[in-house]
Amino acid sequence: MSQYFQIEDNVLWNPATGVSRVFVRTAESLSLLVDLPSGLGPMCADECEIDIEAFALFIDTLASRYARSNHVILRSLMEGFIATGMALVERGGGELPGVKVARDDPSISALQELSRRHSRAMPR
Predict the structure, then answer these.
(1) Which of 22, 44, 58, 85 has its CA 20 to 30 A from that of 77?
(2) 50-86 burial code (b ≥16 CB/10 A, e <16)
């Protein structure tokens, strides 16, 4: 089984169900951390509609929080989710203005590289 993360008919990612569940639950947890909606709609009939503007703001805010943090465990817990989210934002045509401004920050550069690796491993 797999599930679809999409914008209308544009499928951005088609992960296995278990991976999808972990991703959605992580989004819910991190949403509480930054007090923002994730932009991920409910999973209905194996499809999750993404509000790309809200999702991009969420990911951009998480990336900024990640870069400012010196908490090793928090950063470790966040980085895989953020990298996957950055790949989805790119696929969906969204913008990450904070990431763009901070691209010279080593933390942001590392997230961008991880995002590229994730993107290559994310089936559509």
Answers:
(1) 44
(2) bbbebbbbbbbbbbbbbbeeeeeeebeebbebbbbbb
Number of domains in the chain: 1
Q: How far apart are CA 102 and CA 28, in angstroms?
A: 25
Asked whether the CA dihedral 95, 42, 3, 6 is positive or negative, the reply is: negative
Residue 100: the pLDDT is 84
pTM beyond 0.85: yes
Evaluate whether 38 touches 55 at the Cβ level (below 8 Å): yes
Q: Supply the DSSP string of 41-92, one letter for each residue.
A: EEEETTEEEE-HHHHHHHHHHHHHHHHH---HHHHHHHHHHHHHHHHHHHHT
Q: What is the pLDDT of residues 41-92, one digit of tens each?
A: 999 999 999 999 999 999 999 999 999 999 999 999 999 999 999 999 999 9
Which domain covers residue 110, as residue numbers?
A: 4-121
The pLDDT assigned to 98 comes to: 87
